[in-house]
Design brief:
alpha/beta, Rossmann fold, 2 domains, 6-stranded parallel sheet, HAD_sf, hydrolase
Length: 236
């Protein structure tokens, strides 16, 4: 996307997790505690691989989010211990999940200031995926909800999901810009529709969200190192 093309943009959509607030490090920390609980039974590398396998297997049933992660941890523990895990240890895993759900929302640096600048010129919407209750709770606790005219909480972010959002809200492709930290979920599906996207990397990304890029992909989006650079890029 060339800089002078930004004048056509009327609607800017933002991802939430690891774009507006911290998310993946909470999962990483919890997984490390989960490994400590299962340490008497199984090697951490085997546990890590099995947990990811079961998480992916369960996505079609539980979707994304903390609750599905908790259930996948419990299923992993039962499978790898051949059912020998104790009720006390299962409760420890459940408690890890409760801590995640109650974790304070840590808004990332420069986010609120950037939204403050952009809200007067653009229609801002939030497009995230995951558990409805958990995402609504995080939006409310973040204090950022009032910046957005619309909230979209999806079970999956793909081309069809974005196409439906644009159609439902009567947004022209050339007027739409998506901002997020995931190439797989926030950037490439939008670019494949002919819309524009800005990639703002986060320092850690869940392996399921990682993609292998080719040269064509690199021509379809802009990468910015920090969200604070977005207004300048848009000439605001």
């Amino acid at each position: 996307m060339e800089k002078n093309e930004s004048r056509d943009i009327k609607v800017i959509a933002f991802d939430a997790d690891d774009t507006l607030w911290v998310n993946e490090p909470i999962f990483t920390f919890t997984q490390e505690r989960f490994m400590e609980v299962l340490a008497p039974y199984v090697d951490s590398k085997i546990l890590e691989a099995k947990l990811y396998e079961i998480e992916i297997r369960n996505l079609s049933l539980f979707g994304y989010g903390i609750k599905g992660f908790i259930l996948s941890m419990i299923e992993t523990a039962i499978e790898l211990t051949a059912g020998k895990i104790s009720g006390h240890e299962v409760q420890q895993i459940i408690n890890l999940g409760k801590v995640m759900l109650d974790h304070p929302v840590e808004v990332l640096p420069n986010v609120q200031e950037t939204l403050e600048v952009l809200q007067d010129k653009y229609t801002l919407i939030l497009i995230t995926k995951g558990d409805l209750f958990d995402q609504e709770s995080k939006i409310a606790r973040s204090g950022l909800g009032d910046y957005f005219s619309k909230l979209e909480i999806l079970s999956e972010k793909n081309e069809e999901a974005y196409r439906r959002i644009l159609k439902r809200n009567t947004i022209a492709v050339e007027e739409f810009l998506m901002v997020g930290n995931s190439l797989k979920s926030d950037v490439l599906p939008v670019c494949n529709l002919g819309a524009r996207a800005i990639y703002i990397p986060f320092h850690t990304t869940w392996v399921h969200e990682q993609v292998n890029l080719n040269e064509d992909h690199l021509l379809t989006y802009i990468e910015l190192p920090d969200i604070s650079l977005l207004p300048k890029y848009l000439n605001v």
